[in-house]
């Protein structure tokens, strides 16, 4: 397999080119293949900003009761308390992850665990689900 020989040769060529050009910002051990040019960084930032802007518009025309995880779970909790048989027959516990997935994903679009030190457990959507699960466990134990 010649590809294993090709990679070290490419690295050696890039190293020589950096030494001759006097580039001092490369750190040994980091791949220059993964280094981004300023143009690529700008394009990435513009693309990221566009995605974040679009994500803010997703629920603009949705009634507040149907785009807030806590309010949605409250409606399911009311359903379970008023009509436990129908709630059970609808297998709601299996449906909730699919239902809440898009709402959670929108909230996680801007989350970067390497930059934001907010733990998932501290996020409002996580706490809402946790409270709902605890209330469900308490009602099942009764």
TrEMBL record:
Lineage: Eukaryota, Metazoa, Chordata, Craniata, Vertebrata
Entry's family note: Belongs to the GCF family.
Gene name linked to the record: Gcfc2_1
InterPro entries xref list: GCFC2-like, GCFC_dom
Residue spans of biased composition, Basic and acidic residues class: 16-30
A single GO cellular-component term on record: nucleus
Subcellular location(s) of the protein: Nucleus
GO molecular function terms noted in the UniProt entry: DNA binding
Domain GCF C-terminal: 70-131
Keywords linked to the UniProt accession: Nucleus
UniProt main location, coarse: nucleus
Single GO biological process annotation from the record: mRNA splicing, via spliceosome
A Pfam family it matches: GCFC
Region (Disordered): 15-38
Protein name, as recorded: GCFC2 factor
């Amino acid at each position: 397999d010649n590809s294993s020989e090709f990679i070290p040769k490419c690295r050696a060529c890039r190293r020589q080119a950096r030494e001759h050009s006097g580039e001092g910002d490369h750190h040994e051990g980091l791949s220059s293949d993964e280094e981004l040019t300023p143009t690529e960084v700008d394009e990435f930032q513009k693309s990221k900003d566009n995605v974040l802007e679009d994500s803010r518009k997703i629920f603009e025309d949705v009634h507040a009761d149907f785009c807030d995880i806590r309010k949605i779970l409250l409606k399911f909790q009311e359903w379970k308390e008023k009509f436990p048989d129908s709630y059970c027959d609808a297998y709601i516990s299996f449906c909730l992850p699919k239902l809440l997935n898009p709402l959670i994903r929108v909230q996680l679009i801007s989350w970067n665990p390497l930059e934001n030190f907010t733990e998932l457990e501290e996020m409002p959507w996580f706490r809402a689900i946790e409270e709902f699960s605890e209330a469900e466990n308490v009602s099942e134990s009764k």
